[in-house]
Design goal:
Strand order of the largest sheet: 1-2-3
Largest sheet: 3 strands, parallel
Strand content: 5-15%
Distance between the termini: 38 Å
Number of strands: 3
Structural class: mainly alpha
Helix content: 40-55%
Number of helices: 5
């Protein structure tokens, strides 16, 4: 009987790309299976620029936002961004989507309901 498929990953946000990319290289060297970046528009650098740089500086880890939300990113924008990341990374992209509680609280917006989240996921 085969054992469970255990993977490990890291997620971190940053305001400086140079520091983040140094961290990405360490995570990659440590054998990370997943490397994520938060989508906090008023707190950190842009997630899709950062994730593209992450993909360029890694060779095997899956890369993606942890997590984006339906309020600050139109579904067409998210779909285009994640499709581009998927293409650039050679199929290593993942997409985390949530209601946006903390990212939205910081800018005074109300987080999405579960129904709105479902609609957004279907649209993306």
């Amino acid at each position: 009987m085969a054992g469970p498929n255990v993977q490990f990953g890291f997620s971190r946000s940053a305001t400086r790309l140079d520091e983040y990319l140094e961290w990405v290289r360490v995570a990659d060297e440590a054998g990370a299976d997943i490397i994520g970046f938060g989508d906090g528009q008023d707190l950190w650098v842009d997630p899709y620029v950062t994730l593209t740089l992450t993909a360029a500086n890694t060779s095997r880890a899956r890369v993606g936002p942890t997590v984006t939300n339906p309020v600050t990113r139109h579904p067409a924008v998210t779909a285009g961004a994640i499709a581009s990341l998927q293409q650039f990374s050679g199929g290593r992209a993942f997409l985390g989507i949530g209601t946006g509680l903390s990212a939205l609280r910081n800018i005074g917006e109300k987080y999405a309901t579960v129904a709105e989240l479902e609609e957004y996921i279907r649209a993306v």
